[in-house]
């Protein structure tokens, strides 16, 4: 069977082709009775608008690019952060009658392909996730004129509008909690130094300790469980007498719990542990993990609204966080 055309719908509804075009493209200038007749003809004939032709009329593709600057193996690992953000973004876009186009550039060639794709008019906006260091992509995408919003504060000098959680404040609350529990030799497992979440959570840790005159002790991780275990082992070697650790992610905190068990340290009797994120697994570690809850879904929903609104407001949106106290402290 041949695909029904605009002309066929117009003939069935008894109106012009231009009127049908306005109705199917969402124009509000058509008489309600005529609109009803056109929509009835569309349903009876099974007419489906041509996406390419429709985008020429509306100047919109109906798609939003979700650019994740991580290798696919990391995005689809056991880190629940990525799955929750991607799921929330897709659901929010579906509610707005949009779809997500997932892109994961992990090389300069991949970044160039993303830039060409966006500059070619294939998406109506871009959401950037998990930016690292002096990533050239934000500046390149901003030059295309397409609305661009970042999930998290960009570290690069190119600063698209962004939404984030209060990483500095959350780290402060975590370390202050450990001090209030009587802990005196508090170490940290920080995130990557080329990511704002890593930098800001380390800054919050150092701010609280500097106010007490205590020495800071840090080991660097990459937000994975394995890096948390390795960093914890290094911290115990550097300072066997430490009595608390603030890990900048829950996955690194679970790695720290594993390393502490292997070293024969009791949690929280010998070493108290605090994480950051409040992933579902934090309630089921042994012991259950004290952590800083960040509103991952709320941040993701806000970013979608920002990009759909055209990213006109450059004022950052920062969500508060909450300390969740469990048995690990």
From TrEMBL:
Gene3D superfamilies found in the cross-reference section: 3.40.50.2300, lambda repressor-like DNA-binding domains (1.10.260.40)
Coiled coil: none
Superkingdom to which the source organism belongs: Bacteria
Domain HTH lacI-type: 4-58
Any one GO molecular function term: DNA binding
Cross-referenced Pfam families: LacI (PF00356), Peripla_BP_3 (PF13377)
SUPFAM superfamilies attached to this UniProt entry: lambda repressor-like DNA-binding domains, Periplasmic binding protein-like I
UniProt keywords, alphabetically: DNA-binding, Transcription, Transcription regulation
Entry-linked InterPro entries: HTH_LacI, LacI/GalR-like_sensor, Lambda_DNA-bd_dom_sf, Peripla_BP_I
The protein's name: LacI family DNA-binding transcriptional regulator
Organism: Actinomadura fibrosa
């Amino acid at each position: 069977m041949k695909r029904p055309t605009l002309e066929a719908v117009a003939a069935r509804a008894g109106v012009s082709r231009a009127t049908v075009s306005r109705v199917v493209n969402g124009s509000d200038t058509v008489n309600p009775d005529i609109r009803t007749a056109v929509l009835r003809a569309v349903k009876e004939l099974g007419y489906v608008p041509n996406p390419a032709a429709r985008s020429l009329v509306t100047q919109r593709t109906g798609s939003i690019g979700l650019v994740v600057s991580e290798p696919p193996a990391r995005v689809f690992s056991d880190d629940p952060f990525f799955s929750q953000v991607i799921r929330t973004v897709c659901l929010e876009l579906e509610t707005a009658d949009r779809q997500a186009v997932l892109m994961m550039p992990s090389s300069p060639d991949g970044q160039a392909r993303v830039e060409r794709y966006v500059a070619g008019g294939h998406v109506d906006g871009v959401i950037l996730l998990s930016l690292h260091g002096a990533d050239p992509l934000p500046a390149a995408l901003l030059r295309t004129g397409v609305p661009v919003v970042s999930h998290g504060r960009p570290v690069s000098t190119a600063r698209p509008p962004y939404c984030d959680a209060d990483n500095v404040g959350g780290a402060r609350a975590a370390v202050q909690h450990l001090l209030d529990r009587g802990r005196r030799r508090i170490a940290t497992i920080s995130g990557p130094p080329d990511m704002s979440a890593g930098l800001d959570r380390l800054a919050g840790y150092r701010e609280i300790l500097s106010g007490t005159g205590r020495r800071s002790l840090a080991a660097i991780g990459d937000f994975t469980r394995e890096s948390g275990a390795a960093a914890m082992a290094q911290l115990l070697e550097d300072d066997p007498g430490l009595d608390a650790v603030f890990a900048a992610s829950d996955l690194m905190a679970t790695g720290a719990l594993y390393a502490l068990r292997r070293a024969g340290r009791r949690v929280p009797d010998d070493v108290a542990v605090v994480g950051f994120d409040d992933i579902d697994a934090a309630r089921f570690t042994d012991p259950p993990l004290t952590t800083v809850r960040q509103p991952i879904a709320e941040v993701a929903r806000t970013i979608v609204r920002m990009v759909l609104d055209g990213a006109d407001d450059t004022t950052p949106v920062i969500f508060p966080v909450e300390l969740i106290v469990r048995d690990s402290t």
